[in-house]
Amino acid sequence: MHTKIFYGVTIVLLTLSLIKDRGKTKKALIKAWKSLENILPQMLAMIVAIGLIIALLSPETISRIIGGSSGWWGVLLAAILGSVTLMPAFVAFPMAAVLLQNGAGYMQLAAFVSTLTMVGLITFPMEVRFFGRKMTIWRNALAFVFAFLVALVIGKVVVL
By CB neighbour count within 10 A (0-12 exposed, 13-18 middle, 19+ buried), where does 37 fall? Predict the structure, then answer.
């Protein structure tokens, strides 16, 4: 139901924009299309990654590795996996939702998504060039520790 409302509002606003200034609206639509083209490879990669995870790992396996019963070892594993994976947040959250539906734990996913979006081992060399080695190490180390704090808070909130 909400989807239909959002599409309806979008169509109305797009029509109003076309009436007001056809040229600007056309430029905006072209820019939006180019943005979609830039995002599409990452979205397709997410779909493939989720498909592979679900196909190769049963819900029981996912639950055993990073499920709620895996405890802090699962949190650590999820944090390490998130640290070495490069993925934008808009891809990470849908992937986390699918993993949650297939047995992953809340704390483990909190650590995974936190490190996925904040710790960048793959981008480390580029970051060193801009911020310097010491600052990059501190930023990544603090983000890694912060991921455990996020996991702890999520674990406490979900238990309530």
Answer: exposed
Q: Where are the alpha helices (DSSP H) in 57-123?
A: 59-66, 71-84, 89-101, 106-118
Domain ranges of the chain: 57-159
Q: In the prediction, which pLDDT does 159 show?
A: 67
CA dist list (Å): 87 to 33, 46, 70, 114, 143: 21, 9, 24, 11, 16
Q: Who contacts 99 (Cβ-Cβ below 8 Å, separation ≥6)?
A: 53, 62, 66, 109, 112
Q: How far apart are CA 6 and CA 23, in angstroms?
A: 24
pLDDT digits (tens, 9 = 90+) for 86-136: 777 877 888 888 888 888 899 999 999 999 888 988 888 888 988 999 999
> Taking a C-beta distance cutoff of 8 angstroms, is the pair 122, 81 a contact?
no
